Amino acid sequence: MSKKVLDSYSLLVYFEHEPGYEKMAEHIEKAAGSMQNLLLSVVNWGEVFYAIYREYSLSRANEVVGTIDTLPIDIIPADMELTKQAAIFKANHKMSYADCFAAALAKLRKAELITGDKEFEQLKHEIKINWI
């Protein structure tokens, strides 16, 4: 199984049972059955937290991040190398800074990005994308 990176879009789809939920559930099940966890930048973790908090409540946001802790997902800190690559993507593309961290993590880890966010279309020649 190749390394896979999640963005906030993919996790929000999963937690809110939106279209693409089934594909996300499959990715999570596969990761649970393998020795290779999915990867998530701490910046994208924060984006999931604030999106759920804003839409629902602090209590619901805490529930969601508590659930993330139980899933086969490794939270990757934003070190200098990751932040630099995210900044390079931001300088060269019209996309959110948080999305740049997901893309940077995929690029640096030579991993596949799991997303349904069309903003990543512009990076299809720089990173591998698995569309949900």
In short, what is this structure?
This protein is an alpha/beta fold and 132 residues long.
Architecture overview:
This protein has about 130 residues and is an alpha/beta fold. The protein has a single domain (about 5-130), classed as 5'-nuclease (Rossmann fold, 3-Layer(aba) Sandwich), CATH 3.40.50. Helix content is about 55%, strand content about 15%. It has six helices and five strands, in the order βααβααβααββ. It has helices at about 10-15, 20-30, 40-55, 60-70, 80-90, 95-110, and strands at about 5, 40, 75, 110-115, 130. The longest helix has 14 residues, at about 40-55. The chain starts with a strand and ends with a strand. The model has no long low-confidence stretch (mean pLDDT about 95).
Descriptors:
132 residues, alpha/beta, Rossmann fold, five-stranded parallel sheet, 5 strands, 55% helix
Topology summary:
Elements (H helix, E strand, L loop, with lengths): L3 E3 L1 H8 L5 H12 L5 E4 H14 L2 H13 L2 E4 L3 H13 L4 H12 L3 E4 L12 E4 L1
Parallel strand pairs: 1-2, 1-4, 2-3, 4-5
